[in-house]
Write a structure and sequence with these properties.
Layout lengths: L1 H15 L5 H7 L15 E8 L5 E12 L5 E11 L8 E2 L1 E2 L14 E8 L3 E14 L3 E2 L4 E13 L5 E13 L4 H23 L7 H17 L3 H23 L6 H11 L2 H16 L6 H13 L4 H11 L7 H8 L7 H16 L7 H28 L1
Antiparallel strand pairs: 1-2, 2-7, 3-4, 3-6, 3-9, 5-8, 9-10
Helix pairs in contact: 1-5, 3-4, 3-5, 3-6, 3-7, 4-5, 4-7, 6-8, 7-8, 7-9, 11-12
Length: 396
Amino acid sequence: MLEVILISIIVMIWICFGRTAKWHIAFLRPGAKRSESPGSGRFRCTVQLQKEPGGTEVFIVKIKGRVVTPSDMYDMDIQVLLADVTDGADDPKPVLGTVSQWQMEDSPVFCYRVHNGKIPRRELRISEWMTVATIRADYLQFPRQGRRKIQFVASLISHQSSAELVCAGAVMDYENAQTGYIDITEDNNQARVLTVRLAVAVADSEGRSNQAQLDVIRQWIDEHIMACQSNTGKLVIRDLLGGALRETAELIESNRQVDIESVGREMARALEVIERYNAIELCLRIAGQGDEISGRQIDILRRTAELLDIDGEKFRAMAQKLLPVRSGRGDYTNFILGITDDMTVEDKREQLNDEYCKWNGRVTSRDTTIQDQADEMLALIAQVRNDCVEQPCANG
């Protein structure tokens, strides 16, 4: 499955290259005919890696050799394209540009192109290495992190027609310290798969799930499918997340449980902060669709939040927003209001006062949904204050 996903991702990116770069792709493949000046003084390219005073890495691209133009006063541009050939020249992958100025017209693929000016005579001989481009490494995004082989293709092309006059390539090793775009895509896909597994586990935490809970999961999957801009991407995400949903459901149907501890720890390693919050939000939405929220489900939600390193107060604020306000159930009520077993009566009174002040200030909100929730929360606070605080104090 993962290989299919990776191939699809690469195909998507190469499609973005557009027709402009097709001959450059051919140039990078073994046995492709190089476009060189005839005769002596073969056109060549070399690349050096340097560090600027501030520590920024830059690639210095130089050319040397003989160039023959169609006519005197020929107007030319200089162009430099990059490809990652770590997996071989038969499997080149584009290097992307992080600055729009150095991207192809119709894609994020890196393209350095500047106007060189007119050459007075038809024949130009560059006898010494001449710098034609200084490319900052932080303007580039490579496919993967780590040791890479990067091929640079320097070309002289017509300023008017973009017809190539001559080109040459050079390959250099480069240690990429940044996460590559394929790495990011794989990480994002893995994060989505883990989120689906966790969501199904929460829905089935009581040994059963209802249609509303499954609909929330499917809606979440559909949103991620629609977020992809290409049809290929939509198919990849649909197959990936649909497969994760089926596999997790089959696991549960076979009376085996999803290891929430393992999934949570893996998510904590793989997901960015915002993705972890999105995952716990999905779990809370699912829990809110259940017939009831049990103490076991509360424990699972709390433990999941801990595993994902979610701030406790932010988690409870999300729970208050996404879970229904229900009275008469001690574990759930205490969870919503932030009351714990180790609190003294005075601690509980202070916590309820804080909650009262917060929700009383929202009664006059212009949002009627917030108004309704505030009214419900205030009624719940009054009930808990009477049941859990006032009575014990009176008895004392």
